[in-house]
């Protein structure tokens, strides 16, 4: 079996490292060729000397499974340039937060990503988890891979299938909607949930988000808002979010696939808080050359 990982950042490096333990041909792709990467975990650093190459220079044929672990903002570009890596049977697993990018691909397999980490220059800090959740449908190449991962005594990567995938994916979107919005726009970490005003604002964002998700049928229970607020309050106060780190690093955010994705689907619903959030996130990257 041939496997590709595109995007060797916080998420992709952990996927790549674990897949490299299997007896498969796994090829890693980045924006620039490199001779390896370093992951730090619980204060210990390990370097992995796996070659990273560029997609355009690759002439080794197509893959059975391709993991795409770039930011959602890079997906459209990948979908237009990776045709030589895929065939009709290739399973393309999209390891991104957010929604609304699936149509760039022919037969995508979106995954809910439970891998927490952060890329800082050339070093990746892996905080916790190595799980991808996908919909419970028959995908022969992925099924073979799941069996191989399950049988391997050391690999930590788990690909789990869920019959409740739609709800879980929307709940992850809503979790990101709430916390990414307030941490990015305040440029502060999870400690802001100690402020009652921030908690109230976040609750209002979530209530609007749940109303949009449930506008045609109930997918997420309204009680999810309480659960999400409890989750935020349990986070380490120093923990940021991907959108917070993007804003701090002055780079483009994934807001088009989180806040704007929901806002574009609000229909006749009144969403005064989300209206402001989307306007400010759009203004943040306006004419900044991203
Ligand atoms: P990173 O920025 O750490 O990694 C993305 C990687 O993709 C970078 O190494 C980047 O290279 C590379 N890349 C960008 N464009 C291309 C390209 N055209 N070809 C090949 N490689 C490319 O992002 P994350 O890993 O943090 O995030 C990936 C996705 O996972 C996002 O959607 C994020 O929201 C989601 N996610 C992240 C979590 C986390 O804890 N980090 C948790 C759950 C989900 P370069 O550095 O050169 O730009």
UniProtKB/TrEMBL annotation:
EC assignment: 1.1.1.44
Which segments constitute the Ketopantoate reductase N-terminal domain? 3-129
Q: What class of enzyme is it?
A: oxidoreductase
Q: Does the keyword NADP apply?
A: yes
Record bears the keyword Nucleotide-binding = no
Q: Which Pfam families match?
A: ApbA (PF02558), ApbA_C (PF08546)
Keyword tags: NADP, Oxidoreductase
InterPro entries in alphabetical order: 6-PGluconate_DH-like_C_sf, 6PGD_dom2, Ketopantoate_reductase, KPA_reductase, KPR_N, NAD(P)-bd_dom_sf
From what superkingdom does this record's organism come? Answer: Bacteria
Q: Which reaction does it catalyse?
A: 6-phospho-D-gluconate + NADP(+) = D-ribulose 5-phosphate + CO2 + NADPH
Residues of the Ketopantoate reductase C-terminal domain = 164-285
Q: What Gene3D superfamilies does the annotation carry?
A: N-(1-d-carboxylethyl)-l-norvaline Dehydrogenase, domain 2, NAD(P)-binding Rossmann-like Domain
Family in the record: Belongs to the ketopantoate reductase family.
**Which protein is depicted?**
6-phosphogluconate dehydrogenase, decarboxylating
């Amino acid at each position: 079996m041939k496997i590709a990982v595109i995007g060797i950042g916080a998420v992709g490096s952990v996927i790549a490292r674990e897949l490299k333990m299997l007896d498969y041909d796994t090829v890693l792709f980045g924006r620039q060729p490199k001779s390896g990467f370093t992951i730090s975990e619980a204060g210990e650093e390990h370097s992995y000397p796996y070659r990273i190459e560029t997609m355009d220079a690759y002439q080794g044929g197509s893959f059975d499974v391709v993991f795409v672990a770039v930011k959602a903002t890079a997906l459209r570009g990948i979908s237009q340039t990776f045709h030589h890596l895929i065939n009709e049977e290739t399973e393309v697993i999209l390891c991104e937060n957010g929604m609304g990018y699936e149509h760039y691909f022919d037969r995508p397999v979106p995954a809910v990503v439970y891998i927490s980490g952060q890329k800082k220059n050339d070093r990746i800090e892996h905080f916790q988890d190595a799980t991808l959740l996908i919909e419970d449908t028959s995908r022969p190449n992925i099924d073979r891979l799941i069996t191989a991962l399950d049988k391997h005594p050391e690999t930590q990567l788990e690909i789990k299938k869920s019959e409740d995938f739609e709800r879980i994916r929307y709940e992850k979107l809503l979790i990101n909607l709430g916390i990414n919005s307030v941490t990015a726009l305040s440029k502060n970490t999870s400690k802001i949930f100690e402020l009652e005003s921030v908690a109230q604002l976040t609750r209002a964002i979530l209530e609007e988000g749940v109303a949009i998700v449930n506008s045609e049928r109930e997918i997420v229970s309204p009680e999810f808002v309480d659960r999400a607020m409890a989750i935020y309050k349990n986070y380490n106060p120093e923990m940021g979010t991907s959108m917070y780190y993007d804003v701090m690093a002055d780079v483009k955010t994934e807001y088009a696939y989180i806040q704007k994705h929901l806002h574009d689907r609000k229909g006749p619903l009144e969403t005064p808080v989300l209206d402001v959030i989307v306007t400010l996130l759009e203004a943040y990257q306006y004419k900044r050359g991203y």
